[in-house]
Amino acid sequence: MQKGLAGTDLSPSAVHTIVELGYGTVNTASHLGTLLHLEKSSVSRLVQKLEKDGLISTEPDPADKRSRILSLTDDGRVLLRDVERFGRRQLRSALSALSQDDVAQIGTGLSLFAKSLNAQDHPVKTVLPQIEVREGYCTGVIASVAHLHATYYAQHYDFGAVFERKVATEMSEFMGRIGNPKNTTFSAYLGDELVGSLSLDSEDLGEGVSHLRWFIVSPRSQGAGIGNLLLGKATAFVDDGGFDRTHLWTFRGLDAARHLYEKHGFALAHETSGEQWGTRVFEQEFVRHCTA
After folding, report:
1. pLDDT in tens, 191-221
2. CATH of domain 132-289
3. Residue 125, SS3?
4. CATH of 5-97 given 3.40.50.2000, 1.10.10.10, 3.40.50.720, 1.10.260.40
5. Residue 129 in contact with residue 222, Cβ under 8 Å?
6. Where do the structural domains in the chain lie, given as residue ranges?
7. Pairs from 72-78 (Cβ < 8 Å, separation ≥ 24)
8. Could you give the count of Cα atoms lying within 13 Å of 287 in the half-sphere of its Cβ?
9. Alpha-carbon gap, residue 145 to 140, rounded angstroms
10. How many CB atoms lie within 10 A of CB 99?
């Protein structure tokens, strides 16, 4: 919080003021104080200094005689361009040694961080990273999906080897039937890393019924819209394929996933308690009817 931010001799709050005025985010001292979380006296001193330095100008607000409109002077706009150039140079220098995948992950992380900071009062629209959705079998997909399931459910439900073995075994068997055009897998990749996947099995629940299986999103990519993207692909596939309905099984407590299921037309049909995975959980069955 010392002077010298972005190559200037100004304080961070002063540089922030130049940026916000230049971008039109605020135009009064009152709005500036709210944005910067500064007391009225601090804002007054800040405005006086910037005006004295010739970086901003003030004029009466026609709509409120007690307020004054703030704007950048020509020198202030020159300073804003200098700040922007400094920021671009700093970013290019920091990112130049990274791969495109690393840069994409940074972008995703910043978007999620902004969403978390602003969730209560100023929701931020999450920007979907550069995700490639691949359909069908991809090298390593069985191991990656089994790993994501095993680590997530071990952490949150204390599931162990029985669960991991079941996921890997049953998905391996399913991939032997992936040639059936009514079976498919949609997998989301960030570069070469699998960050989400689901499969649709048309052969284990009867004619005209699709089974949505092994839906998972990497924990570090959750909240970036990947689950919504995959479920959109899945529902389009079953609707275009003429299925009567689609079933999926999950566990109580996965509220974010349940929200996505219901958003895409699934409804809770059945719930039962059991300990088949070594831990007592409530299994839930959701059903979605075709929207042809």
Report:
1. 889 999 999 999 989 899 999 999 999 987 8
2. 3.40.630.30
3. coil
4. 1.10.10.10
5. no
6. 5-97, 99-127, 132-289
7. 72/18, 72/21, 72/22, 76/18, 76/21, 76/22, 76/50, 77/22
8. 9
9. 9
10. 10
